[in-house]
Every structure is written in C-alpha cells, then in structure tokens.
Amino acid sequence: MIKTCSITKAIIFVVVFQIFNSCTEKKGSFHGEVYKTETGMFGYRIFHNGKLFIKQETVPALRGNTRFPDSLTTLRTLDLVLGKLNKGMAPGLSPEDMEKIKTHADIKK
Q1: Of all residues in the chain, what percent carry a pLDDT higher than 70?
Q2: Is residue 22 very low, low, confident or very high in pLDDT (cuts 50, 70, 90)?
Q3: Could you tell me which of 14, 74, 66, 16 has the C-alpha nearest to residue 42?
Q4: Left if phi > 0, otherwise alpha if psi is -120 to 50, otherwise beta: which for 26?
Q5: What pTM was computed for the model?
Q6: Helix ranges (DSSP H) in 1-109
Q7: What is the pLDDT of residues 33-79, one digit of tens each?
Q8: Is pLDDT of 102 > 90?
C-alpha cells in the first residue's frame, strides 16, 4: 500500500511538472538563419516561436548601410546576437562586440 502511494505521488508530481513546464515561455526559443540578399550580399533572420523577430541586412553597430562582406561574418554576428537573446539580453551590438568577432577589418562600405 505504501509503495503504491509513493508511485502515485511520483506520477502526479511528474504530470504537474510537465504541465507547468509546457506553459512557461522558454528563453532559448530563438533561432536564426543566414541568407543571400537580392543584391548578392548576406543578411540574417532571427525567429522567435516560429515568427520573424529580426531581419538584418546591414552590419549592426556601424554607421551607414555597411553590408556584411561574406556569409562567415554574417554567421558570426548572428551567433553573437542569438547568444544574447537566449540569455535574456537585448540583441543590440556595440563596436566592441564587432571587434570580438573580428569583422571590423573585413567589412568594406
């Protein structure tokens, strides 16, 4: 009888936990992709819960309409932004952030 009661309590706990867990929004629900623009340059899209959240075709943190020079630079930038978003941080990048991924030397206006 005691063993059956313990199993029942464990099952109830698991069911309640699963219901609670499925109702809470997960921070890590951001994902992205690099794509080639109509002009032959690169950009990235970030999705949140299946909906477009950010579409970026210019390098953030730099003045003007500086385009990404290649897909690798775009991917590095996307990874940095996704990392911030998945930690609950704002997606904005600074010139120092761009320095970290070493895109500043590769970017041409």
Answers
A1: 67
A2: very low
A3: 74
A4: beta
A5: 0.68
A6: 2-23, 71-86, 95-100
A7: 999 999 999 999 999 999 999 999 999 988 888 899 899 999 999 99
A8: no
Report DSSP state, residue 91: -
Can you read off the two tokens belonging to residue 36? 């080639």
φ, ψ of residue 91 in degrees (nearest 5): -80, -5
| Cα 72 → chain centroid | 16
* 68 DSSP assignment: B
Count the residues in the chain: 109
- Distance (Å, rounded) from C-alpha 26 to C-alpha 76? 23
Cβ neighbours of residue 8 under 8 Å, at least 6 residues apart? none
How many Å separate Cα 46 from the centre of its chain?
A: 6
